[in-house]
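Colleagues,

For the teaching module next term, I've prepared a clean inverse folding example: a structure given as C-alpha cells, and then the sequence designed for it. I'd like students to try predicting residues themselves before seeing the answer, so please don't circulate the second half yet.
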C-alpha cells in the first residue's frame, strides 16, 4: 500500500470523540488490521508519531501499526491476561513488542513471555508546579510539607513511581518516604494515580495539586504547552530509569515485524528521535539487563 493510499484509509473513519467525553489518548490505530502491535511505556506518547514516521520510511511494507502507551505494570498484566477493559469496551489484542523498565522485562523474560530484553533509552526525574510556583517548591523535601498536595504516580503500576520513592529516600530517608507515601496518602494530600501520570498533569493544571514528580521528558513536554513550570530535582538525589524492549514470544502474530522494530529502536535514526524529546541513551555503565 502506498503512502497516499494509507493516508486516505486513515481518513475513512467515523469520528466519535468529543472531549472530555469518549477520549482514549493512549490507544492508537486498528488492532484488527495491524501489521505490528506495540505496547509501550506511557511516557513515550510524545515521541510516537515522529518515531513511527521514521520507522515506516525505513520499512515501507509495514504501514498499519496499533500501539498503546500505558503504564508498564498495566501492559505487563495485559500481556499475561490477554485482555484490556476500558469502560464497557474489551480488547483482546496480542502485542508483538513490549517496552518496560529493565527489571520488569527481566521478570517477563524469566516467565517465558518475552525474548531477551535490550536497553535502548534512559530518563531521569523532575518536578512540575503551577506557573509562578505559588507553593514554593524547591526540591523533594518540600513534598513532605503540610498542605503541599502531591500528585504521585502509583508505584504499583508505574515504574516511575518506584523511582520517585527511591529519590525521596535519597533526599530525606525513610521518614520522608513514610510522610509522602503513607501519612499524606491517608490524609489525601498525596494523590496516587489510578491509570498513569497523564492524571498528574491534569490535576496540576486544574489546581487540585501543588506539585507533580514525573519523568523529565514529560516535564519538558508539558512546560512547552505553557501551563506549568519545571523545578529541577537536586542531582545528588535524582534517579535514572532505563527502558528496555523485547519481542513478545507468546500469541504474537507478527514476529518478523517485531524483530525489525526492536532492532530499529537501537539504531541512530531512532535514537535521534528520542534525543529530540529529551531521552538519553542507556547509561554506559549498564552492561546488561539487571546489572549495575
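(Answer key — instructors only)
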Amino acid at each position: 500500500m502506498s503512502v497516499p493510499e494509507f493516508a486516505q484509509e486513515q481518513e475513512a473513519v467515523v469520528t466519535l470523540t468529543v472531549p472530555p467525553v469518549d477520549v482514549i489518548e493512549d490507544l492508537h490505530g486498528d488492532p484488527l488490521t495491524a501489521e505490528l502491535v506495540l505496547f509501550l511505556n506511557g511516557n513515550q506518547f510524545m515521541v510516537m508519531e515522529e518515531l513511527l514516521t521514521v520507522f515506516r520510511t525505513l520499512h515501507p511494507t509495514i504501514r498499519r501499526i496499533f500501539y498503546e502507551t500505558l503504564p508498564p505494570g498495566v501492559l505487563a498484566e495485559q500481556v499475561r491476561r490477554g485482555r484490556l477493559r476500558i469502560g464497557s469496551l474489551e480488547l483482546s489484542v496480542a502485542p508483538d513488542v513490549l517496552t518496560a523498565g529493565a527489571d520488569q522485562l527481566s521478570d517477563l523474560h524469566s516467565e517465558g513471555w518475552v525474548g531477551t530484553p535490550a536497553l535502548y533509552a534512559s530518563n531521569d526525574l523532575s518536578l512540575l508546579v503551577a506557573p509562578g510556583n505559588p507553593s514554593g517548591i524547591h526540591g523533594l523535601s518540600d513534598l513532605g510539607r503540610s498542605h503541599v498536595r502531591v500528585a504521585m504516580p502509583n508505584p504499583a503500576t508505574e515504574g516511575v513511581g518506584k523511582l520517585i520513592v527511591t529519590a525521596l529516600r535519597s533526599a530525606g530517608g525513610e521518614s520522608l518516604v513514610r510522610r509522602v507515601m503513607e501519612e499524606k496518602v491517608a490524609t489525601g494530600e498525596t494523590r496516587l494515580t489510578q491509570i498513569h501520570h497523564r492524571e498528574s498533569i491534569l490535576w496540576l493544571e486544574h489546581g487540585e495539586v501543588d506539585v507533580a514528580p514525573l519523568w523529565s521528558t514529560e516535564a519538558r513536554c508539558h512546560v512547552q504547552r505553557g501551563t506549568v513550570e519545571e523545578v529541577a530535582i537536586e542531582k545528588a538525589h535524582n534517579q535514572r530509569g532505563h527502558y528496555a524492549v523485547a519481542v513478545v514470544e507468546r500469541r504474537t502474530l507478527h514476529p518478523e515485524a517485531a524483530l525489525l522494530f526492536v532492532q530499529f529502536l537501537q539504531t541512530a535514526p531512532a535514537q535521534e528521535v528520542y534525543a529530540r524529546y529529551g531521552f538519553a541513551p542507556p547509561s554506559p555503565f549498564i552492561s546488561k539487563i539487571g546489572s549495575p
